[in-house]
Amino acid sequence: SRLPLAGAEQLNFLGVEGQPPVPRGQEPVADERTVTPGYFQALGVPLVRGRLFTERDVPGQPRVVIVNETLARRFFPREDPIGKRIKFGRV
Questions:
Q1: Among 63, 60, 67, which Cα is nearest to 13's?
Q2: pLDDT in tens, 49-85
Q3: 66 — phi, psi (to 5°)?
Q4: What whole-number distance in Å separates Cα of residue 3 and Cα of residue 74?
Q5: Coil, strand, or helix at residue 11?
Q6: Are 48 and 69 in contact (CB under 8 A)?
Q7: DSSP letter at 10?
Q8: Contact between residue 89 and residue 25 where contact means Cβ atoms under 8 Å apart
Q9: How many alpha carbons lie under 13 Å from residue 54 in its C-beta half-sphere?
Q10: Rounded distance between C-alpha atoms, residue 50 and residue 60, angstroms
Q11: Facing residues of 88 across strands?
Q12: From residue 67, how far is each of 15, 23, 58, 80 by CA, in Å?
C-alpha cells in the first residue's frame, strides 16, 4: 500500500489479549501496511520465527500480523508471541 519503509497508516497499539491494557494516552503507535506474499523476501528481510504471509491471508480469513523484534521484546519479554492476539485502534 506504500513504498517500502516510507509512510504508512498508523494504528494505536492497544495491548495484548490476556495482559493488562496499555494505559490510555500511552499507547505506542504501530505502522500498518498492506502487502502481498513475497514482500519481505523481495526486500531481503529475513523471518526470525513464525511464517510469512501467504495467498490464503485474505479478507474473510483470520487476520494475521508480522511483528518486529522490538515489539516482541517489549510486549512478550518472557513468552512466545506466536499465536497471541493483539489489539489495535485507529490513530
A1: 67
A2: 999 999 999 999 988 889 889 889 988 889 999 999 9
A3: -110, 125
A4: 27
A5: strand
A6: yes
A7: E
A8: no
A9: 5
A10: 21
A11: 13
A12: 13, 21, 18, 12
The rounded distance, in Å, linking the Cα atoms of 46 and 49 is: 9
Nine-digit cell at 75? 510486549
Local confidence band at 33 (pLDDT 50, 70, 90 cut-offs): confident
DSSP for residue 3: -
Hunting for cell 489495535 — which residue is that? 88
SS (H, E, C) 36-89: CCCHHHHHCCCCCCCCCCCCCCCCCCCCCCCCCHHHHHHHCCCCCCCCCCEEEE
28 — pLDDT class (breaks 50, 70, 90): confident
Direct distance between the N- and C-terminal alpha carbons of the chain, in angstroms, rounded to an integer: 18
Q: How far apart are CA 55 and CA 37, in angstroms?
A: 6
pLDDT value of residue 48: 93
